[in-house]
Amino acid sequence: MSTLGTLHTPKQVADRRAQAPHTSMFARMLLRAAVLRRRRAASALLAMIVAAAVATAMMNLYVDVQAKLRTEFRNYGANVVIVAKDGQSLPADALAKVESVLGAKTMAVPFSYAVARTKAGQSVVVVGTDFTRARQLNRWWKVSHWPDAPNEALIGMRAAAVVNPNASPNRQPFELTFQGKAIQLAPAGMLQTGAGEDSRIYLDQSEFQNWTGVAPSTIEVAANGTAAEVETSIRQLAQLLPAADIRPVRQIMEGEANVLNKTRATLYASATLVVLTSALCVLATLIGWVFDRRRDFAIMKALGASERLINGFFAAEAAALGVVGAILGFFIGIGVAVWIGRVNFHAPVVPRFSVFPYVLAGSVAVALISAILPIELLRRVQPAIILRGE
Amino acid sequence: MFPRIVYESFRRQARRKLLAGIAITLGVAVATAMIAVATDIGDKINRELRSYGANLVVTPQEDTLDVEVGGVNLKPPSDGAFLNEADLPKIRGTFWHHNIVGFSPMLPVTVKVGGSAKDVTLVGTYFNKALTFGKEDFTTGVRITHPWWKVSCGDGKESPKCGWPADDSQNVLLGERLATKLNQKPGDTIEIAGRQLTISGILSTGVAEDDQIVAPLALAQQILGKPGAVRRVYVSALTKPPDALAVRDPKTMTPEVYDRWYCSPYVESIAYQLQEVIPHSHAEQIRQVAQNEGTVLARIKGLMLLITLAALFASALAVSAAMATAIFERRIEVGLMKALGAGNLAVSAIFFAEALLLALVGGIAGFSAGALLARQIGRSIFNSQISIEPVLFPIIIAIAVFVTFAGSAAAIRRAVKFDPVFALRGEG
Prior knowledge:
The structure holds 2 protein chains of 2 kinds.
Chain A: H1 10-19, H2 25-36, H3 38-73, E1 80-84, H4 94-102, E2 107-118, E3 123-129, H5 131-137, E4 142-143, E5 152-156, H6 157-163, E6 174-178, E7 181-192, E8 200-204, H7 205-212, E9 218-222, H8 227-240, E10 244-248, H9 250-292, H10 294-302, H11 307-345, H12 356-379, H13 383-387
Parallel strand pairs in A: 3-8, 5-7
Antiparallel strand pairs in A: 1-9, 1-10, 2-3, 2-6, 2-9, 4-7, 5-8, 6-7
Helix pairs in contact in A: 2-3, 3-9, 3-11, 3-12, 4-8, 9-12, 11-12
Chain B: H1 2-12, H2 14-49, E1 56-60, E2 68-69, E3 72-73, E4 83-84, E5 100-112, E6 119-125, E7 129-133, E8 136-140, H3 142-145, E9 150-152, E10 171-175, H4 176-182, E11 189-192, E12 195-204, E13 213-216, H5 217-224, E14 229-230, E15 232-237, H6 255-262, H7 267-277, E16 281-285, H8 287-328, H9 331-339, H10 344-382, H11 392-417, H12 420-425
Parallel strand pairs in B: 6-13, 10-12
Antiparallel strand pairs in B: 1-15, 1-16, 2-3, 4-14, 5-6, 5-15, 7-8, 9-12, 10-13, 11-12
Helix pairs in contact in B: 1-10, 2-8, 2-10, 2-11, 8-11, 10-11
């Protein structure tokens, strides 16, 4: 036995035993087994760590990625629209109420509409809004220059031809009239969206209201969260603003739900495959490790150890391996998940410690299974046959 | 002698070899399935992203401004230019026609409903219209391009009594809010622009159409008195996320660059091709849809790529762990061979030959299992096939052989280095 190699004279042995801490035989057997077969133990532990790390990373991502993707989907803009009933205006405090319900993270942008006339008598839709908010909500708007001075307007691609047909990069001021009231506006930049916005002219809300006296009739809201959370927000808003119609934008909501569901299902399938493969890896390594120590097993049996003790010994060893592997693997896995979050989503993944019990239980279970399997096989063999090396 | 040793090793240690073979098969199966899913996920998600609706709109070149507030069109009805309905099937003749999922023409008309003095907008469109281009028959309409449009009997209830009108009928859909305002329900007859029309269902979209009437295109053209007129066409196309080439002006390109741009399914080049086939038209991307799909697609693809890497890593580790265990157990055999005068090279050759055999058999079995798994994933999640490229087969086999070799190498080196005396004495 290789254990004999570390013992020298009886005196040295006696000295060492006297100095050694008084640990139980059981604990010492566990420790010596790990120390003496460092290499095999290390490879078994490594397999355990890798499996636990992969499982942790997958579970973390599975939970977090959905939240991450939802924020990506908010780039599609508003998913809830609040419209005043029958073409009236919303109450003046509507925007403040919306924000108080939905919290600061949600984007809410007011819009007010009026049809004005150009000098040539053409009708054009003029919209009053809050440019800072609109810019955050509608990121797909292609704008050459956002208005930043008083009486500057954002001109839709197609509206530009109407308000100032001659000059092409027209920075010349133009005049609009609404119910006999005229206003001089300077074009700040062009707006291109490919949709209805291209035919409109956008003004700052307060300037718009001074000119037309029309208050916001629409608030577009980008509500964060799951479909159920958005539903709750809609119900809360409906209670708060009885004078308004609150509608989900089905195009955005259903598109998001569809893509998200498919992605989640794919992610789930892949994560299951990856976790199963790494469990297989642990199983293969650990079975090899235990099988390799059939001599220890035979000697223990030959020295009269009960089957229960031997089973307990190997089970304790496997459990210890599982626990250590799970703890180390958990932290590595969190690191991997954070790295993936940063590389792919440019945002940190929040470590989820709630995953830990599952990883721990799974690791110990796999370790126990892979220890018990070979022991069951070995139990049927006479110790003498193993010791003879057959 | 060499083939015999290998053959006998497989015959006598069938169970051990089976275990290692199973590990390789499973590892390769997972790797194949993950690679197949990851390479196809872009295409699959791209199709799912079409549920956001059209990403291109075609308008007449000389179009006047839309004057629309709250779903009501304030523009004089016959004002402005129109596209010709007869030109629409040509959309199927563009270079990227396979990427065009569907298109819907729209013709808004301002009408008076019943006795009320208020103007209501009626939009004529295709619901699920059968068209022919060349020898190809296809159907298109809002049911493809606007999948979130929902038709019910009002109150959100669905029943066979109410549904989508036929494209050649005189039936209309009433917007949800308009129906409440007018107090109408499916089956009722309603007077629109002097005609008695039947309401076949209540339409809910969450936006402007809730205040409008949606009718078959032919009916809208009759009301307007302009047969064949179409105000705009929404086109839903599968596109490639934009890159530096996509946004360049085709007029400034050299012929080679132009060909490359023209033959890439960018939203810009598809718009350009639509303009080519529809006379006097202007095609534009709907930026809300077109600009965002690229980012969503890139995120999901990136995620799958990273997970595939994790899967490859885990299966490589599982295969090498199985191989290492299998070889470690045969130290005594190695000792015997070396005692009989075999060199390190000869012993390694035997092990590598065995590993190669295992990798080939496990690789082929794993590839087939992985292909089945990928198909299953495709069918259950995306309702469509995930196709396995045949070119993947040699790559997967090569990876299997490489990983098996790499996994065995360390174990073989240790087994070969082991002193035969210790091995034969049974001291490991």
